[in-house]
Specification:
Layout: H1 2-19, E1 33-41, E2 43-52, E3 57-66, E4 69-78, E5 81-85, E6 92-97, H2 101-106, H3 112-121, E7 126-133, E8 136-143, E9 146-151, E10 154-162, E11 165-176, E12 192-195
Parallel strand pairs: 6-12
Antiparallel strand pairs: 1-2, 1-11, 2-3, 3-4, 4-5, 5-6, 7-8, 8-9, 9-10, 10-11
Helix pairs in contact: 1-3
Length: about 200
């Protein structure tokens, strides 16, 4: 159960990264943004996502505690690869070709919102109207496991419960069309990245 809840969050990040690879159209209608999240339930912590060039570049820094263990991580995506590393282990990391690129290329629409919605629909969830969150009108996606709120392709809330396990990720701040420092998208040259197999 815990692995599934974590995978749902990771899957969304993969979708964001995958959609960001398509040159036309670009994933987001806004040029840039910073989204801050907090986590509660089975895992606690915070993360910050940096978006630039309409989603062609994304980076996320996370500090997550689960089962008493805290991990820090960077996930940076642009071009053909997604790079992942722990800032506390500066000698090695992982990279992978985005597994969803082929899905996106075959899609009839290229916007981030449609990809995000369709991803959760594949998990058995259904679109269910709209709801206000942080003053923004969000698409609601519901299912037996919980609900997700999406605004312009950004995941604003993911609230899942499966048996005794609860996982909640919610945006606490969303800023769009603001300057983004290019340092967030720099891949460290002193890290050896091992390529993960596609799946």
């Amino acid at each position: 159960m815990k692995t599934f809840l974590l995978s749902a969050s990771v899957l969304l990040l993969a979708v964001v990264s995958a959609a960001a690879q398509e040159a036309t159209p670009k994933p987001f209608s806004f040029k840039s943004g910073i989204v801050e999240y907090k986590y509660s339930g089975d895992k606690t912590g915070k993360s910050t996502q940096y978006i630039d060039d309409h989603g062609m570049k994304t980076a996320m820094y996370s500090e997550i505690t689960q089962d008493g263990e805290t991990t820090r991580s960077w996930v940076v995506s642009y071009g053909d690869y997604q790079y992942m590393w722990d800032p506390d282990q500066t000698d090695e990391g992982m990279k992978m070709k985005n597994p969803l690129l082929s899905w996106i290329k075959e899609a009839s629409t290229g916007d981030m919102e449609s990809f995000t919605v369709s991803t959760y629909e594949k998990m058995g969830m259904v679109r269910s109207g709209t709801e206000q969150f942080l003053g923004k009108e969000c698409i609601v996606i519901k299912g037996d496991m919980g609900k997700v709120l999406i605004w312009k392709g950004i995941m604003m809330l993911m609230d899942f419960k499966m048996g005794p396990y609860v996982s909640k990720q919610e945006a606490t701040s969303v800023k769009t069309n603001i300057p983004i420092d290019g340092k967030y998208f720099i891949i460290p040259k002193d890290i050896t990245f091992t390529e993960m197999p596609s799946f």
